[in-house]
Predict the structure.
Amino acid sequence: MNKPLNDIVRAASRREVLAVGATLAGSSLLVGCSLPTILSAGSPVKPGAFGAFLKFDPDGSVTVLSKHIEFGQGNHAGLAAIAAEELDADWDKVKVEQAPANAKLYGNYLMGGLQGTGGSSAIANSWKQLRTAGAAARAMFVQAAATKWGVAAGEVTVANGVVAHKSGKQAGFGELLADAAKVKPPQAPTLKDPNSFTLIGTPRVKRKDSGLKATGKARYTQDVHLPDMLTAMVAHSPRFGGKVKSFDDSAARKVPGYVATYQIPTGVAVVATSTYAARQARDALKVDWDDSKAEKRGSAEILQVFKDYASGKTVAPSGKDGWQPFSSHGDAAKAAGGTAAVEVAYDFPYLAHASMEPMNCVAMVGKGPARLMYGAQVPTLDQVNCAGVVGALPGSVEIETLATGGSFGRRANFQSDYVVECVHIAKKVGGGRPVKLVWTREDDMRGGHYRPMVHHTVRVTVDKDGYPATWRHRIVTQSIMKGAPPGSPGGKGLDTTAVEGAMGSPYLKATPVVDAQALTPDVGVTVLWWRSVGATHTAYVMEHTIEQLARKAGKDSVEYRRALYTKAGANRHLAALNLAADKAGWTTPAPTGWTRGVAVHESFGSVVAQVAEVKLENGQPKVGRVVTAIDCGTAVAPDQVAAQMEGGTCYGLSAALFGAITLTKGVVDQANFDAYRVLRNSEAPTVETYIVPSTNKPSGVGEPGTPVIGPAVANALLAITGQPTLSQPFVKT
């Protein structure tokens, strides 16, 4: 059994208890307590002699502790390289280990101090932090050697993991480890001049986990097999918001391996001795669902609601639940008048994350602290939500983060949905017995947390030269941030995740009159950030609208954008566009049978320009060569930047061509990849990546490649057919 809550409270300091209690109750301020400190209350995790991010072994090897999850994006190599560069370590002796869950030590300041991975922030958030950690450890080894050898610290050098003096004395990290651990770490160590980097930005920075994954040694949640472990599956309502009215598990009890049935807040859980038995028993349940508060509309009906709001047929509420401006300058009344050069409406469907590994988790509750093992994308949120289930301080919930087969945002949500499910079940099982919760592909595909459905309307008038003079823009979509913890951005009023990419666009900056507003009506379907979030639709709308304007003006697509970027002072956009156009041979004819389309977009601090070569085969788009240019600041791991551009491009192309989740009477139509089609290997384009040289701090890479390919293809199709593509997916089934 768990300790009683009173015992847990008595074991914690009064300060911790007050802090956590107030935080969970929604208090916004506790004097003297930072949010990461509050959220880590009860954690046993302590930093080592060299700080929270570095460990050294007697053989001279270095372990970098990564506070960011590895779920296929390859960030561990870049994170390790940042520390190794300042440390001057032997790259071949550098390893990466997942850091434990502790927001105080491993908080992401780009996520409000929560420990988490998202928003393409891993390298950007850790840049200075890991450089400082590496430089501080280097200084400790230098001082230890200087003291041992009786020489000045300024005369000691470090290269490739070897500490040396001009007298010929030298030692590896392992030989100096005990002495270096006693040196007080400098608070503000001197960092390298980027011009002296020997590792960062070179092809040497390659993934450290490829061998483990290729040989099957990487450990995922499905690889966890603990003594006496049970497997659980949950029957969920087929409609969002449905609740259990009653259930009959008599047939489930007859399945060999069946152990127990439990009703939990999200459905009915069946526990068995194997995954097969759990599925057979779960599928044998007879559940009567209460749909009185469930979403019963189909996706077409919901979209029509959005359209009616955008057209003004339905009047929106006033105040914080009504229309919210996201860009406005000049006389707004002018944006509704005059002769429009382009007046269009765009529709985007719900999209599933479709990560290759469906949701799963292992939990142990009832003997000592609650323990969890799974791919934790935002462990701090999960700790807080699970602490509420077991009656403990958040930091005392121990999380071992495992390798994960994709996420694209799905494994991070305010409710910690599948993780809390697992903890509820493990709590009912009790005794600290391990329980592995497994979601099937069908559970995952129909389980919600989709990229929201979106409707845009755009009306643009132009000046005598064909450039935008007025721009009226309306976006209607669900809010991802509604229901966020108190103090989160977008929880009230404008949800910036719905408009990012349009808000702040250089095209709007270059337009004299702009009236742009967004509305986020409530819908019962659960939605979530999806790789590149708002940019998934705003990039398409902005770039395809600009393309239509350029063609109506009789101007070259690249030249038209250059003029607008120059007017807006968007130098990074201009540089990325110029590089992509040059490498693609924009001014030369495309290969016979192919047509080029161009698109440029900024997301997560990075600017990506793409030129796609497209043709129609049997009436459907086929994408061949894609030339990509990215300005992501300092490119720590160029090979990984290229890999992320390739992966992001294919992910975005898959969604643009085929992706759509639809509902009929509130029930999701798609259950697996047979109905939710994804890009096949034979359909993947050849992606070339070129990096704009930069000495700026690193910016995002994991997501910025996703939103650009859709409009680049649509713009090529516009050149082929003369007709804009106003809805996704391009290929209708």
About this structure: The chain has three domains: 49-211, 221-292+359-438, 301-350+449-721. Residues 122-149 form the longest helix (28 residues). Residues 49-211 form a domain with the Aldehyde Oxidoreductase; domain 4 fold (CATH 3.30.365.10).
